[in-house]
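User: Hey, my collaborator sent me this sequence without any context and asked if I could get a structure. I don't really work with proteins. Can you help?
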Amino acid sequence: MDDVVAVPAAEIPTWWGVVASFALVALAALVSWRVRLGLTRELVWVALRALVQLVAVGLLLGLVFEFGGLATAFGWLAIMVAIGGQVAGRRARGLPGAVRVATIAVAFGAVATMGILLLLGIIDATPMVVIPVGGMVISWTMVATGVALRRVRDSVGSSRDRIEARLALGLNPTQAYEQQRRDAVRTALLPAIDSTKVVGLIALPGAMTGLILAGVEPLAAIRYQIVVMYMLLAGPALAAATATWMAERDLFDSAQRLRRFSVPAGSS
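Assistant: No problem. I've predicted the 3D structure and written it out in structure-token form, which is a compact way to encode the shape of the chain:
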């Protein structure tokens, strides 16, 4: 990062500024209360929870950056993957093996994407780079995996008769399930595709904005953002494809029959 320049401490919000910014949460809560959305308490709670989580993570990251090595960074990412798999799997609860499939899919998307970036020397192999970049990849692969598996659950559940008819006509499970698999992957990738279409036109992306606020030259920040943009296309694509492929193994039994599963009420 030779393009980074020093940033005066005054440009970084103080803790008083952080506390004062809670007025924005109060404004959102007021709107929720005024129009009776029933989200007032949740808005305040998630804001406070995010504050505590970020402060705790900030303290831990400071220790990792100062005393930990690359192995510690990878261990941190492994914890992120485990949590991401749980979150994505719960999005598709009711689907056989949802949490296991989601965890493997998130891990594969993250490992493949980060592996390429590190092997090609595109990013530095240091905890200060690996953890935040890996966190972005895992976050997006988690969302894509959750969307894909939930779409599989819902579409297979509503298309059971058609899938079973295809099986009765002699198609194998992969062929009978192909349409649902394609739809699930396509749906999971739409957010990443739409974000890429309008990058820089509607809003400056997060990585680029952060680097510019840190004092990096705009063109240097853009180079980093392009790498981030490409990895956030690859990671979700790999994760969603893996999740839907693995889901097939749990949806059909050894006799190539579609298993019965229930969709919990309110899970959609």
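In plain terms: The two ends are 44 Å apart (CA to CA). You can pass these tokens on to your collaborator as they are.
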